[in-house]
Specification:
- The protein has helices at residues 39-45, 69-78, 93-101, 156-161, 168-174, 211-216, 234-240, 245-255, 273-280, and strands spanning 2-7, 21-26, 29-35, 53-57, 85-89, 112-116, 120-124, 128-135, 141-150, 179-181, 184-186, 196-203, 222-226, 259-263, 286-288, 294-296.
- By secondary structure, it is of the alpha/beta class.
- It folds into 2 domains: 2-152 and 194-296, Metallo-beta-lactamase, Chain A, CATH 3.60.15.10; 153-193, no CATH class.
- Strand 8 (128-135) and strand 9 form a beta hairpin.
- Helix 8 (245-255) runs parallel beside helix 9 (273-280).
Length: 302
């Protein structure tokens, strides 16, 4: 499970920071969270193929979070994509995507499936689930939580004691299917331990620090939280629906996350040391995202 920060600036890009975009490589998929202008070029710089993107999650409809979609979609079509592209986001997203389809001259070679979201779990696959909730910005903004599913630990020694032999029967029991041994049927719960919690990643998009973010991020392994301003700009942050490094750190502390990553930095901060220092006074396990930075999310211990 790997996070790649394709863009970490706020409303205006700089020589050092692109518009917002975050890639997640996990579960055999490549997902994008937000797709600001220039996202596909950032992907090219690190040899990440846009053709491998299956799902895109848009937090809100401010341009710095979605204006990379038209170019990305047209490039996919130019390269002959046929697989569906799934795009998720807030109310209004469907109209945006329909407009993109009519923008300029190009032939769309693949289906785009758009889903407008409200709150709660909206995507459940074999290895993961994704949920969202509205948070507090100047327009409707959805924060996202990606949670890994982990099957209970398989108790091999117990299975051997029950007369099972390593092989297909082990796999069946791990998948929840009973197995017959002689005259007896072994139930999965006889050889499976307690439920195990998988990794959890939460991405805020743009938001003030709020209880909704705290609840969504509860005990996450990684909280990627916007940090547009430093603490001296608290009033401006509240007025514009953004967070300071300190308020992001308070969310992380209240949610008891393992690590906080600050992103969506104002152009005034060429040197982000101040933001990191202020956040660390409240929540020590913090880092500041840089463009093209990669972070591995370690598997949780059994």
């Amino acid at each position: 499970m790997e996070l790649v920060f394709l863009g970490t600036s706020s409303a205006i890009p700089t020589n050092y920071r692109n518009h917002s975009a975050l890639a997640l490589k996990a579960f055999g998929e490549l997902m994008l969270f937000d797709c600001g202008e220039g996202t596909q070029r950032q992907m090219t710089r690190i040899r990440m193929s846009p053709m491998k993107v299956k799902r895109i999650f848009i937090t809100h409809l401010h341009g710095d979070h979605f204006l990379g979609l038209p170019g990305l979609i047209q490039s996919m079509a130019f390269r002959g994509r046929e697989n569906p592209l799934y795009i998720y986001g807030p109310d209004g997203l469907r109209d945006v995507v329909e407009s993109i389809k009519k923008l300029g001259y190009f032939a769309l070679s693949f289906p785009i499936i758009t889903q407008e979201l409200q709150t709660g779990i909206f995507l459940e696959e074999e290895g993961y689930r994704i949920s969202c909730c509205p948070v507090q910005h100047s327009v409707l903004n959805l924060a996202y939580a990606v949670e890994e599913k982990r099957s209970p630990k398989f108790m091999r020694d117990k299975a051997l004691e029950l007369g099972l032999t390593p092989g297909p029967d082990f796999g069946k029991l791990q998948r929840g299917t009973p197995v017959k041994v002689g005259d007896r049927t072994i139930q999965p719960e006889e050889v499976l331990g307690e439920e195990r919690e998988g990794r959890k990643i939460v991405y805020s998009g743009d938001t003030r620090a709020c209880v909704e973010m705290v609840n969504l991020a509860k005990e996450a392994d990684m909280l990627i939280h916007e940090s547009t301003f430093d603490g001296s700009q608290e009033e401006k942050a509240l007025t514009t629906g953004h967070s300071t490094s300190r308020s992001a750190a308070r969310v992380a502390a209240l949610a008891q996350v393992k690590k906080l990553i600050l992103t969506h930095l104002s152009t005034r901060y060429r040197d982000a040391d101040l933001l990191k220092k202020e956040a660390a006074e409240i929540f020590p396990e913090v880092m500041v995202a840089e463009d093209l930075m990669s972070v591995q999310v370690k598997r949780r211990a059994d």
